[in-house]
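Give me C-alpha cells for this 385-residue protein.
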Amino acid sequence: MPQGPFDPFDWIDEQAAVRSRAGLVRTLRPRPAESALLDLASNDYLGLTRRPEVTAAAADAARRWGAGATGSRLVTGSTRLHAELERELADFCGFEAALVLSSGYAANLAALTALSGHGSLIVSDALNHASIVDGCRLSRATTAVVPHTDPDAVRKTLDAHDGRALAVTDSVFSVDGDAAPLPELAAACRAYGAALLVDDAHGLGVLGDGGRGALDAAGLAGADGVVATLTLSKSLGSQGGAVLGPARVIDHLVNTARTFIFDTGLAPAAAGAALASVRLLRREPELAARARTVAVSLHRGLTDAGLSAVRPDAAVVSVLAPSPEEAVRWAADCRAAGLVVGCFRPPSVPDGISRLRLTARADLTGPQVEEAVATVARTAPTAAF
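Here you go.
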C-alpha cells in the first residue's frame, strides 16, 4: 500500500544537485536576431547563414512549397526541390547519389542502423560524435570502440571478426578539431572487406577542393565501400542532413532507414537555403581556404599568448581549460568582454579536458581575429597558461 505522497521525479532533483556541485549545469540562452557580440561559437564556417542569396532562397522555397514538408518523404514530404538538392550534393561531393534527411543526427542514425544490424560489427572511434554513438547503440550490431585515430586498432578489430563489418569515424572531430586518418582507415577497411562510414559534418565546406569535404581531400569521394554523412547546418548555413554513397546504398536507406521512413521531410526553406549555399560555394571556392587560414591565425595567436590550443586540421580551434568550473567562468568572461565562444565540459568531453571551442569563419576579418585572441588571453584563468 502507498505510504504517503510519492513524487516520481524526485530523482531529477538529486541529479540536478549532482550537476550543480560538479559545475555541469547547462541553460538555454536565446540569442537576439542582431547582436554586437563577436561570434566564434557558431558552426557557420563560411558565414553563409545570413548571405542574401541564401536567405532569399529559403524565403522563395517557403513561398513556393509551403512552410513545412507536410509529411514523411515516402508520403508527401519529397518535393522536386529535395531531389534537386540531392543531385547537387552528390555531384559537388563526388558521390553517385544522396539522400536528404531532417538533420545530421538523423542521417547518422539512418546510415548506421541500415548498414549494420544483428551479427555485424561496427568499429567506432572513441571520440566520435554522440549521434554516431547513438546510431551504434540502435543498430543491434556488436560495437567495438577503438582508441582515437588509431588505424592499427581498427585493423586488429576487423581481423578478429568474421562477417559483415563497418568502421565509422568523424572526418574532423567536433571538439578538438583534429582530422581522422582517412586514407589509412580506408586501407584497413579494404583489406578486410569492411565498409567505411565518415561523418563529414565539419569537413564539408572547409576541406577538399573548393570545400568539397574531407573525403575529396583524401581522394576517397565516391570510392568503393565508402559512405559519407553530412549536415547542412554548418558550412551550408541551413538545417538538415544527408547520406552520400553508391546508388544501391541510398536505395537501401530509402527502404530500411527508420529515421528517413518515419520522419517528416526536411522543410522546403531549409532545402532551398542549402541548395543556394552549395551553388554559392561553387562560385566562391576560396571561402574554404579562407576559413582554414582564419583557424591557423587563431591558433597561432592563442599559442603565442601562452595558451594550450590544439592545432586545427579544419576550422575548429580548441583551448584547454583548467576545470569545468573555470571553463564556464572563462566563457562567461569572454561574453562579458564582447566575445561568444563555445564551452565544452563533461559529458560533451571526457573528464579532465574541459575547454573553450572557437570556430573560424571565412567572413572574419584580421582585426576581428586579433580581437578574439586578445579577449581569450585577457580573460584566461591563471592556470590556463
